[in-house]
Predict the structure.
Amino acid sequence: MSFKFALQKVLEVKDFEKTDAERAYTESVEEFEGVATQLYELLKKKEELVEETEKKLLRGLAISSIQLNEQNISFLQTEINKLQLSTQKARQNMNEKEKFLLFKTVDLKKYEKMKKIKQAQYLENEKREELKFLDEVSIQQFVRR
């Protein structure tokens, strides 16, 4: 007779839940990285535009060009502000998914530990039964002499 864990189905469900949580966490990390990369690109673009505007101002620049550059910088700043909010939301979502994954991992480990304990108890019981059987056989052989 082989070992059968009574909560094997529960263990399998917990394993599936952990795998699902890992997938969700990975997706949230990718989403965060995508938004953060967009934010970085916009910040870099704004910085380059500001530097270029400052250089042009030193050489002399028409007022219309200055106004256009300021509008571009202003537009980039509003986009940056939006992306900063998106990045914060993505980071918060990623942290929540990480906590959930940690919870599911701990939950799965509990069931795996229970299975190991039950399996060890089963093996110990099997060994005890085998020793008991061998003792009975040896007693019967002794009595027959």
